[in-house]
Amino acid sequence: MREENQHKILAKTGAQSIEKIDVIQALWSGYGEIFRIHLIGAHFPSVILKNIVQPVLSNHPRGWDTDISNARKIKSYEVETNWYINYSEKCDEHCRIPKFIHFWQDDGESFILLEDLNTSGFPKRKSNLSMDEIMGCLKWLANFHATFLSTQPTNLWEIGTYWHLDTRPDEFSQMTDGPLKRGAHKLNTKLNNCKFFTLVHGDAKVANFCFGESPEDIAAVDFQYVGGGCGMKDVAYFLGSVLDENELQMRESELLTCYFSYLREALRRKGSTSEFSSIEAEWRRLYPIAWADFTRFLLGWMPTHRKLNLYSEKMVRMALGSH
User: Fold this and answer.
1) Could you tell me the end-to-end alpha-carbon distance of the chain, in angstroms, rounded to an integer?
2) What ranges do the domains of the chain cover?
3) Reduced to 3 states, what is the DSSP secondary structure of residue 253?
């Protein structure tokens, strides 16, 4: 790491020195790395640094290396930067995220300096969740959606989520012709012209949640695809990341009811419950359409994906039957 950037970290954290630097992971397709910076003499033992570099040659693991893909990724990091600078302070303990410390650019690279959630009570990463932990993530999402209800996505994605139809023409062209492909644009319009919109996380899979000792101790990371939309996009995507088709079928009603109870409580705390019944009614109608929208992406991107199953097929039938 360049000496100037190390000095920047010391100045922004008040640390005396940097003890060591660990690489946590590479960013998707070779667009940089995430580091844990261990500090000496600061109020906290470490911070996270997201170092974004546009690669000379992208290396997408599934071969989607196109100009469109590259432009989408570059914009995603610009969006994440704008999110942390202009929106992240609105997140409270009910939808915990890493605190933003600083952003800068140097020699064509970008740097986002963030709180290290590991040292703030959220050290665990999980791939399988208990039902209590699933409920906790739904509670996080409900509070996030309540916090940003009716927020205009200025300098974010106008339409949030990484699978949004307008940003995925390559994958759409690879879809086999059928009812979903023919109906995709109508479903997209219906989903994204909802009356009650919020900001969606846009990539709310289990891997982007951090856990503490209690199922209630949950934080989220990775805001590259945050933008406007219906909260059901996050809910459907999250549930598909933690439950198989049988569990989805059995638990759907229970989990949606829990999500909406959390949303009602979050809106109550914010003194904004007057339209809750209308929000719930609209978003429940849009739940199958949110599923169909993501299914459309998967059918073009990876038609053998495990999330393409009997439950997603059922959601597609319901969505197509609603327009």
Assistant:
1) 54
2) 3-119, 121-320
3) helix
Among the ranges given (57-61, 119-123, 297-301, 313-317), the one the predictor scored with the smallest mean pLDDT? 57-61
Backbone φ and ψ of 34, nearest 5° = -115, 130
| Burial tier of 153 (Cβ tally within 10 Å: 0-12, 13-18, 19+) | buried
Using CA atoms, how far apart are residues 319 and 183, in angstroms rounded to an integer? 9
Residue 108's pLDDT is 86
- How far is it between the farthest Cα atoms of the chain? 63
Class at the top of the CATH hierarchy for domain 3-119: alpha beta
Tell me the per-residue pLDDT of 43-60, one tens digit each, with 9 for 90 and over: 999 999 999 997 654 454
Per DSSP, 156 falls in state S
- Per-residue CA distances from 30 to 26, 81, 167, 237 (Å): 7, 18, 20, 25
What is the mean predicted confidence (pLDDT) over 297-311?
Answer: 95
Domain 121-320 fold: Aminoglycoside 3'-phosphotransferase; Chain: A, domain 2 (3.90.1200)
Give kind and range of the element (H or E) at residue 100: strand 100-106
Are domains 3-119 and 121-320 of this chain identical in fold?
Answer: no
The runs of H, that is alpha helices, within 215-244 are 232-242
Question: What mean pLDDT comes out for the span 230-256?
Answer: 97
Strand, helix or coil at 161? coil
What residue spans of the chain are helical by DSSP H? 3-13, 67-86, 131-147, 169-174, 179-192, 232-242, 245-269, 276-301, 310-320
Reported pTM: 0.94
What is the C-alpha separation between 273 and 289, in angstroms, rounded?
25
